[in-house]
Amino acid sequence: MRVYLDHNATTPVAPEVADRMDRAARELWGNASSVHHFGQQAKAAIDDARTHVAALVGGETSEIVFTSSGTESDNFAIRGAADVLEATGRTHLISTAIEHEAVLNTFKALTRRGFRVTLLPVDAGGIVDPDALRDVITNETALVSVMHANNEIGTIQPIGELAAIAKAHGALFHTDAVQTAGKIPIDVKAFGLDMLSISAHKLYGPKGVGALWLRKGVRMLPFMTGGRQERNRRAGTENVAGIVGLGTAAQLAIGTMAVDAERLRLLRDRLEHGVLTTVRGAERNGAAEPRVPNTTNISFDRIESESLLIGLDLDGFAVSSGSACSSGTLEPSHVLKAMGLPHARTLSSIRFSLGTSNTDADIERVITALPPLVEKLRSLTTVGGRR
Ligand code: PLP
Questions:
Q1: For ligand 1, what atom is nearest to the CA of residue 324?
Q2: Catalytic pick from 259, 325, 330, 361?
Q3: I need a surface site. Which of 4, 36, 69, 177 has the fewest CB within 10 A?
Q4: Which atom in ligand 1 lies closest to the alpha carbon of residue 102?
Q5: Does the C-beta of 71 come closer than 6 Å to ligand 1?
Q6: Closest residue by Cα to residue 251 from 32, 60, 15, 55
Q7: Mean pLDDT, the chain cut into blocks of 10 residues (387 residues total)
Q8: 377 exposed, middle or buried (CB, 10 Å; 0-12, 13-18, 19+)?
Q9: Is 325 annotated in the active site?
Q10: What is the rounded distance in angstroms from the CA atom of residue 198 to the CA atom of residue 202?
Q11: Does residue 200 share a domain with residue 62?
């Protein structure tokens, strides 16, 4: 039996989600924009999903816009806000050095259009200091975008405090909550946010579906041009089955999140402690807290992470080195680099991200398998080789 420890890359679709999506695909095939019975059935299913997604993040139903992915939600939030605010003379954008590529590359694209972008640093634990934002924000800042939790190391950012600073300067605040939705409670109102992105496939829903929570009153230019779907905010005929899948995943997460989080935290801590105490030269990357309960990132001295990843895969364990999008390349993790870790350590890190199917036995197996595998790889590696 293989052990899947890569839930931050994607999660398996929950059986209830697959069942409801299957039914939606067969029965709710009407176009939600049609006024007849078939269209209205599809629209009702979308609206039902919208209530669950809104409840998951503490927003209003009318504030949820469905998209094709977390990536699209990030693009929509950042480009939409930049487009509206450019006309007001606000051409400064702020984010952090540890964002996902969906955010970083969107800001990069905006610099080519004349926007000035400041990336905030993080400390050695992977956390943004609110004073760093205070130091750089001005009345020309249009938008601040800081991820809720990092996908590689799991650290949680002080988004409430950061959002308050943005607000005091008249800037909008967006957070990429792709790695927290369904894992820890989110309350967009208590946090004082303007926009928040989520993605279905990180919370046991389908791939290719996401949502943007957009606070009522925030003016945005639609990111896609076309029809008037999603109250004129996102053109394109809705992916009804996918949206039903996201809604079901959100509904399930609301019911199980607290219990799952505590169970996963215990398993994660057991895994982390087991590895750090049994494998020589193993060190955790990133602060222990605040951190999402399912994630640990560990560097193994004198080991190339790709070799360990492949060795673990051959032994039946699925893990990741850095973020999933950059696996397969030998580029050091930009997150670990931003934390100031030594170059060698940035190339020897493995992310273990747990999920609902993981058991005590899985964790015991990986703790047992790692020490001999690491020693074997070290014996094959020329000391000081590539690094
Ligand atoms: N943001 C973060 C923090 C992520 O971890 C991911 C996926 O890895 C994304 C955005 C992109 O989401 P999607 O895969 O739905 O495009």
A1: 8
A2: 325
A3: 36
A4: 10
A5: yes
A6: 55
A7: 97 98 98 98 98 98 98 97 92 98 98 96 98 97 98 98 98 98 98 98 98 96 90 96 98 98 98 98 98 98 95 98 55 94 94 97 98 96 50
A8: middle
A9: yes
A10: 8
A11: yes
